[in-house]
Structure formats: C-alpha cells, structure tokens
Amino acid sequence: MTTIIFGGTAAYHLKLPDHAQVGERRIIDTPYGASSPFIYLTKNDHSAWFSSRHGEDGLQRTAAFVNHRANLWAAQELGATGILSWNGVGAIAAGLAVGQMVVPDDLLDMTRSRIASFESSDLATPSGQPFASELRQQLVEASQTQGFICATHGTYVCTEGPRLETAAEISAYGWGGAAVVGMTLSPEVWLAAELKIPYASLCIITNMATGRWALDSRRDFGPGVGVKGLQVTLAAT
C-alpha cells in the first residue's frame, strides 16, 4: 500500500522532523510540468508520501493556482494506491464550528475554468461517489481517536477563487445542501478518479463562511491547523 497525503492549509508552516521521520524527497517531472516536492514520512507503523499543495516555508500559491495535474500524475508515478488530503474550509451548515472537522461524502463543483482531466476525451468518468468510503472511514476513526469532533458526512462545495465567496453565494450553496466551502478539491478529486486512485479528504473548519460570521467570528489559519491535518491523515494510513 502506498498512500499519498496532500497537505492543505498551514502545511507550509510544518517543520516535518518535529512530527515524523523524514525520508526521501522527490520532485517528479510530468507531462504537465514539475510536481510539488514529495517527502516520504514514517511514524510508528504509518507511512506516506507527503506533498504540500501550497508550497513550503510559507504560502507560495493559493488553491486556484495549484498544478493538480502534475501532482496527481506524480502520485501515480509513485505508485499511489490511495490519496488522503486535508483542507481548511469555511462552515456553512448549522451546528458546525471553528476547530471541528468534516469528512465529506459528496462534492458540489462550482469551479468554471480549471482543467479537470488529463486529456480531452469523450469518455465520462463516474462521479456518483467522489470519495472512497473505506478511506473516509479511516479518516473519521483517526480524527475521533485523537479527540477531535468530526462530522462523518457532508457536502463540500468547491469555488473557483481566488476571490472569496459573497454572502448570497454562500446562501445559495447552503440551499443546495453544502456543509462546508473551500477552493481545493476540484479538480484534484476528479483527476484521482480518472487515474482510478481512491481518494478521501479531511476538512478542518478554519472559519465560518461569508455571512455566517455572527455565529462564530473566530478565524484559525495558524500552524496548528497543519499539525492537526498531518496528525490525522498520517494516522489514517
């Protein structure tokens, strides 16, 4: 089994030797450009190739500018049998709060101009279950075992970015059933599906979505988000 972990919010703050044993580092040349660096991590009996989507030693690129095709192609080259990720999200649904987690079971894709396939094709990729149930369960169990409050299902809405959403947009997404909002999972999840690599994601609530701030005004984008994300995803391998 070879697991890939894509780190999201605050992954660029992590000092990896403080959290795992650090092994080989690789940058993969792909038909879509060079991938982000992949670093092999081990902790106890858990191991994975880790890659920070947004850069290292500080934020270098926002979600709208991640080279997902290069990163997913590299994951395949590394022999990925499963992909886990974490993402900072805004909460839409009632009952969610900053600091809690959600393992989504569905996705509402509101992106408009991102390339969601490796090549032009008239073949349709099934997307009725965008997230792998077994990997989702592993994330839920890992988060709850470590004492985090984690919702076991919910719909993630992915927006285009790089701008944030309006209050009206958030209301519309809420009416459409979205629980959390972010900018990262599309096209990552579709590219994984095209390569037939099972995929699941851990959403860490960093703030309330636009128009929901009266419910909880806290905002948490600090290094602790990255620590939680790596802690749970690595434990889920």
Overall description:
The termini are close together. The protein is an alpha/beta fold. The strands form 2 sheets. Strands 1, 2, 5, 6, 7, 8, 9, 10, 11, 12 and 13 form an 11-stranded mixed sheet that branches. It has 5 helices and 13 strands. Helix content is 23%, strand content 27%.
SSE-based structural type: alpha/beta
C-alpha geometry: globular
The description of the largest β-sheet is: 11 strands, mixed
- Low-confidence segments, ≥5 residues, pLDDT <50? none
Report the mean per-residue pLDDT as an integer: 91
The CATH homologous superfamily name equals Nucleoside phosphorylase domain
Radius of gyration: 16 Å
Indicate the CATH architecture. 3-Layer(aba) Sandwich
- N- to C-terminal distance: 9 Å
User: Approximately what portion of the residues adopt beta-strand conformation?
Assistant: 25-35%
**How helix-rich are the residues, as a percent range?**
10-25%
The level 1 CATH classification is Alpha Beta
